[in-house]
Amino acid sequence: MSTAPPAKPVPGLLAVIDMQRVFADPGSPWATPRYAEAAAGVARLLPAFGDRAVFTRFLAPSRPAGVWRAYYEQWPFALQPPDAELWRLTAEFAGSGAPVLDAETFGKWTPELASRLAPGSRLVLAGVSTECCVLTTALAAADAGTEVVVAADACAGVDDEAHAKALHVLDLYRPLVRVTTVDALLAGA
After folding, report:
1. Alpha-carbon span 122 to 138, nearest angstrom
2. What is the distance of C-alpha 21 from the center of its chain?
């Protein structure tokens, strides 16, 4: 019986941003149309990172403060507790065993995420949505002095145009942020 060779390790930490039911469900007000394509890219990356992968979840605060009050007035459906169905990781990732870091902010560059990154190593980002949580995480990490690599085809936006524009903006931050593909990452590029 033949088995596939083990995935070649990719250096750094993979942060998989917000692969949650609220973004996958086509009936959700926050549906990401190409979620399944991003999920396929994430699934290809996970074996190459092994225990150097984490997932994040966006959660609503119990009591929005500041401008978040206006945000949740626009999106009242999202004011649900952390254990609500919409906040769960989708089925293909729920049993991965990877740590899950929660944040009530778009950006996921939190002290918890930063502490998981070895000094001098890079942060590889995948997930949704490209123009929101991926973008804000990438820029905050780069500001902190971390090399950031975004796997474009393991991300998805609210639509193709927003996704492409966000990738363009991210690529303007070279050499702090680099946009690449899953294939290039797996090939060691």
Report:
1. 11
2. 13
- DSSP, collapsed to helix, strand or coil, labels residue 89 as strand
pLDDT digits (tens, 9 = 90+) for 135-174: 999 999 999 999 999 999 999 999 999 999 999 999 999 9
State which amino acid sits at residue 141.
A
Burial class (CB in 10 A: 0-12, 13-18, 19+), 17: buried
CB 179 within 8 A of CB 150: yes
What does each C-alpha distance from 89 to 18, 70, 85, 95, 100 come to in angstroms?
Answer: 8, 26, 9, 9, 9
Q: State both tokens at 185.
A: 């990452």
pTM summary value: 0.94
Cα three-residue angle 112-117-120, rounded to 5 degrees: 140
Q: What is the mean pLDDT of the chain?
A: 94
